[in-house]
Amino acid sequence: MLLNAIILYTRRQGEATSFEFNVFDNQFATENLAVRKVLMAMLAAVSNKLTDLEVEYNDSILVEKVGAKRAGELLRFLGATKENMRENLSNGVVVSRIFHAPFTQEHYEYFYNLTDIAQLSHYRLKEGKEDRIVFYFTRYLQLIAPDEKSREAFLEGLEAFSLPYKLVPIA
């Protein structure tokens, strides 16, 4: 294995290829530059395909990360409204909220320039109804590259960032 290479688990999903960056296995903090470069390469690989954004967050965790004022501004910026918000309840208590919004160039720039990819607990960047980039609760960051061009663009992006990687196929 390459010294300090990131591990990406790969799996075919029909014509698409999933590249999963497992946060625990790679032992990098979510604000580490290498992790940020993985997200940047993922974004660049599918940027022309992204149409929708889905965000799930917990109010107190978001406020802890960015502050109360910034949390509200961030949610409005990303497109959260009373009309598109859904609450997840556990025993009558709101544990998280989810909203869907159109994905814009400003959203692309926000995600591309994130200094901590875990600023939001769970997000999905989509092409229509299909997931393209998924970050899931500090567990993993995943790219679902729909075609050969996107797969190559992602790996070329990692190389352009001088980020050594090892691909590990999983069933």
Describe this structure in words.
Helix content is 34%, strand content 36%. A hairpin with a 3-residue loop joins strand 7 and strand 8. The longest helix is centred in the N-terminal third of the chain and has 14 residues. The two termini are 20 Å apart.
Task: Please summarize what this structure is.
34% of the residues lie in helices and 36% in strands. The protein is of the alpha+beta class and 171 residues long.
Layout of secondary structure:
Layout: E1 6-13, E2 16-22, H1 23-26, H2 33-46, E3 52-57, H3 59-66, H4 68-78, E4 85-90, E5 93-102, H5 105-112, E6 122-127, E7 130-136, E8 140-145, H6 148-160, E9 165-169
Parallel strand pairs: 1-9
Antiparallel strand pairs: 1-2, 2-8, 3-5, 3-6, 4-5, 6-7, 7-8
Keywords:
171 residues, 6 helices
Order of helices and strands, N to C?
Answer: EEHHEHHEEHEEEHE
Main β-sheet description: 9 strands, mixed
* Class inferred from helices and paired strands: alpha+beta
Report the mean per-residue pLDDT as an integer: 94
Low-confidence stretches: none
Give the strand order, joined by hyphens, for the main sheet.
Answer: 4-5-3-6-7-8-2-1-9
Helix content: 25-40%
Strand content: 35-45%
Shape: globular
Distance N to C terminus = 20 Å
Radius of gyration: 16 Å
Alpha plus pi helix count: 6
Query: Strand tally, please?
Result: 9
